[in-house]
Amino acid sequence: MSVVALAKIPRPSKAQRIDTIVESARKVFCASGFEKGSIVDIAKDAGIAEGTIYRYFDGKRSLLDEVLHRHYAVFFDDVQQTLPSIEGHSNRLRYLIRRTLLSISGDRGICGLITRDKRPLDNETPSLSQDLNRQIAVLMADEVKAGIKSRTFHCNTSPSIVCDMIGGGLELIAYSYMRTGKSIDVDKVTDSISLTFLSGIESSDPTTESLANLVERLEQTADRLDHS
Amino acid sequence: MSVVALAKIPRPSKAQRIDTIVESARKVFCASGFEKGSIVDIAKDAGIAEGTIYRYFDGKRSLLDEVLHRHYAVFFDDVQQTLPSIEGHSNRLRYLIRRTLLSISGDRGICGLITRDKRPLDNETPSLSQDLNRQIAVLMADEVKAGIKSRTFHCNTSPSIVCDMIGGGLELIAYSYMRTGKSIDVDKVTDSISLTFLSGIESSDPTTESLANLVERLEQTADRLDHS
Amino acid sequence: MSVVALAKIPRPSKAQRIDTIVESARKVFCASGFEKGSIVDIAKDAGIAEGTIYRYFDGKRSLLDEVLHRHYAVFFDDVQQTLPSIEGHSNRLRYLIRRTLLSISGDRGICGLITRDKRPLDNETPSLSQDLNRQIAVLMADEVKAGIKSRTFHCNTSPSIVCDMIGGGLELIAYSYMRTGKSIDVDKVTDSISLTFLSGIESSDPTTESLANLVERLEQTADRLDHS
Amino acid sequence: MSVVALAKIPRPSKAQRIDTIVESARKVFCASGFEKGSIVDIAKDAGIAEGTIYRYFDGKRSLLDEVLHRHYAVFFDDVQQTLPSIEGHSNRLRYLIRRTLLSISGDRGICGLITRDKRPLDNETPSLSQDLNRQIAVLMADEVKAGIKSRTFHCNTSPSIVCDMIGGGLELIAYSYMRTGKSIDVDKVTDSISLTFLSGIESSDPTTESLANLVERLEQTADRLDHS
DNA sequence: CATGAATGAGCATTCATTCAT
DNA sequence: AATGAATGAATGCTCATTCAT
């Protein structure tokens, strides 16, 4: 190893340091949660002194914010670039669901962190995670509202409740994933959720029934023509 | 003061003691959350010494478990007595949703507690609350499965995902209730949720309609052919 | 040693505990000052755990307050009982000076503590010591004011400034005592201070003297004239 | 941009650097006190790195010393030039008092610093401020001693105690100024202090009494001569 | 010379749990 | 059985000082 090579690593750049710290924070918070994850542990994991962390972050909470921010940033960048290119409110909702599921299944650790530390309620500074989760919900709600306006969706239900059901469902699926570790079949789950809130689960709704009947009559007519 | 009068209160029975403690724990945990609610506060509220609590409970976590257990017991007693008397899987699901909403809106305090301390994940002893929430989910899932079997519901979706959506939706509504304090219109929300997962949000599909038209035209043609 | 005797010591009473803690706090604060004196040191000196201190005191500052309070309590009890029995404003001022000097020379440790931690200026909760020092100043100022009213003292000077001079002088003497450890001759210093602010340091004014001489010569002349 | 222009500022001289640092230290210490004022803040204010400070000063305490030293230097330069030109020990003492009061009221910031951080006692390196205050005391004490020698002052009191009273009084007035912000009427306070230690506060001092008596007897003698 | 990142000891405070009484 | 005093480990955070660059 040449002297030059040695000289190249000794002091990581500011960005590298921050990356190291955030990554260690992510690991520790994911493993122990925000409350139980200690600064000492993060410093140890990063191989630095506790004080160093405070050079880059105002405190524990700021660290958590950065960890979450980085996680969500990827998600929102992707969504903002992709969403406009999708036609149809149903399809766009499908995409949002699928993208969220991918995010969940792609980073089991942080998913657990978000899953646990989501509810502050009394904390002065609410965690970043709820804001971002809320943004996803808003994206979905906007889609539903637009869908209702364009008559794609009927207005028998409240958009916010539909989104609560989608969002809450995704959350529980995420949580189940966290606990069991059983991998998520993204496409299947996306289909299942989409189908449920699009068409419901009732088998005997009028439309479907009449469609079935019509098909049956069509077949009979075809048969008649065939045999004529 | 007579001896009899003295003898009447002197030592509360074991059950009474436990009741006192659990009730105080409920109050404190609801007010401050599990982490921030301290044993000292509970003991003070119960008018006893801290040590006494440890005679009846293994530790803080056990106390929480008992608080939650009692809360859910009322719920499940009610459900077990009412559910069998309701006909139709849709109606039974509706009942479960409505009953859960009532439980949420009826005890804002404990709802907040459950809402916050739901996710342990790494704690040795996982909170009781998830088990009980899970039981509600199981009740719902059973209903959906039975509905599919009896052809009331179609099988294009997964029962567990439907239940995740219902349960998750209820959770988010509960959380929103906790944060805003805005009272829940139980019947309206029940309708909205039921409609969503039963019939979906899609208007009658244009495709289905044109298909009907097409069939009609085919039929007319067939008729004409028939009668020619 | 009997069993009974053994049983008598094991758990010190609440008052004893507090005494132990306050005494240790006094020692530590006197030795290191308030800022540098640590709770750990106090606990160690008292032979107890840090947490125990917090059972009896709200925090570090409360401990200091108690230490100072106890110190001043003796002083003020004494003053309140003695002051009314002394006649004459000069004598009462003398007593206050002397009593303060006794307090200073009698407890070199706490004198240093007060001497050092007297000036908060920006702290939210000002230390108790200034309040109490202020009380002494008020006692003295009241005496001076009453003296002026009764024409014992002339009104060419401001009572508050006289008291500042007495109080400030005592403080510097205390500080000097702290640094050198040289014992204070209480009576001599009392005399010196009293003389200074009562009569000042100017020699009988030459003008006054020559006037006296002149008068004497006039008298002698008068005598001679008389007897002639 | 020419090379010359660049070359003109690039490296401040050692003296300039020190000046910058000391001035920033003065600002920070005055604003936050010695303990709470941090090296980082000083470095930021000076627009340099923390490490640079340590190239010019041994540590935080040295910085404080230099700040105080410079403050007192102006004072002592002035005093040394003015004092010799004043006749009479009383007048010289008056001047010293007045000059000190001017110093106090002229720089409220550093006055607070001195007022607060005056008493180290156990610190390895005692603050410079006491030494300098002591020098003022020495100047005053010299004056008093000389006054006693020349019979201007009587020797019933100790010079050091008189100076303690003057110095301590000035200190308390300074502290009061710091706390209230109420401007000091330099001339009035000077008069008040001077009057007090020169003539005392007793209205009926023996000299005055005997003078009154002498005058009375003089009048009586004159009367007798008149009537003889 | 100057930098400023890194250090790491130090501190006040909290609280679930234990155990002597 | 009940008490509640005592424990002491654990935590987030500060900052004077050092030293590699």
Give the integer mean of the pLDDT values of chain A: 79
Structural class of chain A: mainly alpha
* Corresponding CATH architecture of the largest domain in chain A: Orthogonal Bundle
Domain count of chain A: the total is 2
Strand content of chain A: under 5%
The total of helices of chain A stands at 11
Instruction: Report the count of strand segments of chain A.
Output: 0
Keyword list:
11 helices; mainly alpha; Arc Repressor Mutant, subunit A; Tetracycline Repressor, domain 2; elongated; 0% strand; DNA-binding; homotetramer; 228 residues
Characterization of this structure:
4 copies of one chain form a homotetramer. Chain A contains 11 helices and no strands. Chain A folds into 2 domains: 13-65, Homeodomain-like (Arc Repressor Mutant, subunit A), CATH 1.10.10; 88-202, Tetracycline Repressor, domain 2. Residues 1-8 and 119-127 of chain A have low confidence and may be disordered. Chain A is elongated, with a radius of gyration of 25 Å. Chain A has 228 residues and is mostly helical. In chain A, helix 6 (89-106) packs antiparallel against helix 8, helix 7 (108-116) packs across helix 9 (159-180) and helix 8 packs across helix 9 (159-180). The interface between C and D is large, with 63 and 64 residues. Chain A binds a DNA duplex (21 and 21 nucleotides) through helix 4.
